[in-house]
Write a structure and sequence with these properties.
Blueprint: H1 11-19, H2 23-36, H3 41-85, H4 102-110, E1 122-127, E2 148-159, E3 167-178
Helix pairs in contact: 1-2, 3-4
Amino acid sequence: MKYFVRQKRSYSSSLFRFFGRGTGTTLYRLKSQLAREDRGSALIEMALSSTILLSTILGVLVLSTALYSYLYVSYVTEEASRFASVRGSTCTGLGTACPASSSDVQTYVRNLNFPGVSSSRLTVTTSWPDAASACGASGGINNCPGNHVQVSTTYTLPLSIPFVPQRTLSLTGGSIMVISQ
């Protein structure tokens, strides 16, 4: 009884005849490994997805900082208006900056130290928009009780989001209050 053993014709046997000894075997192994396994694909997928995920997280953090800075500008503007409104031409007993000038308001706002915000990037503009009255205000500032004080603030925030060109965001706030004393 003869057993017929079917010989397996492999890719390497035809290449062996063409290229010589050893070359076909090496090519066959390389071809079979590439066809059989997906070993590098998980690493590439992880690299791409983690890049997108980390960029998104850092973008959210930067935009959260921008929102925090905007709230800072709003709060500082209201505080500056309040500061100027209680330091009109007839104020007494408040000690410093009585009556308040534009430079006094700027100094007060810059001394409100908030964490994570640079007060050197903040610009404060104070004006007294009402027409001149005969209350005895000095220095061309109409800060008599009953008149208005207007404060405008501008804060420049540098934005640096990954894969996005760096920009500067200008945050502004404005407030008008009636001078009380």
